[in-house]
Amino acid sequence: MDDTYKTISQPSEETLYKEKGSKFFGYAFPVTSEDEVKQYLEVLRKQHTGAVHFCYAFQIGTEKIYYRANDDGEPSNSAGMPIYGQIQSFGVTNVLVVSVRFFGGVKLGVGGLISAYRTSAQMALEASEILEKTIDLQYKVTFEYKDINKVMRILREKNLQLVSQRMELDCEVVFAVRKKNAPEAMGAFEAVYGISIVEIG
């Protein structure tokens, strides 16, 4: 079972690609939502007030993939898709790549634009630290206080990551586990009478 994915650890260094007077500033950001995408784009628009195009692509998700590519006024498919192609070729997800263009007075043509945006995106991803992460699932376990020791023992034995806990008359813990280890962890809890476990995503 493939339960790992590649992403970037932090925003990349700014990169610069020049072509016939045009400048393409490249950036890569780790993102997990479209709101974060919008926030990064706003920051870049304030930073580069004289730029004509803010072209980008992003991909979010590990099993259900959601992506968008935006040409931001460049000819159709000449910017966003070449950028997205680099995201695919680097095999990363939960990432936003932006190329900010300052027009240099010479038109590049569609082929030239595709090449420039692809190179700009490639440079941004090459300037990023790419790391591999595991796909983790989260489960909620509910139980009575008298069973707390049993629950804690399973968490410890199975090396499960405790996310949150609420200890009252009715107790609740949320834990995260690597996807491939999830069935074994679930089975351990299901084997104990009076404990209920549900996946919460």
UniProtKB/TrEMBL annotation:
Organism: Flavobacterium agri
Record SUPFAM superfamilies: Ribosomal protein S5 domain 2-like (SSF54211)
GO biological process: regulation of translational initiation
Name by which UniProt lists this protein: YigZ family protein
Domain Impact N-terminal: residue ranges: 20-125
Protein family membership: Belongs to the IMPACT family.
InterPro entries membership: Impact, Impact_N, Impact_N_sf, Ribosomal_Su5_D2-typ_SF
Entry's Gene Ontology cellular component terms: cytoplasm
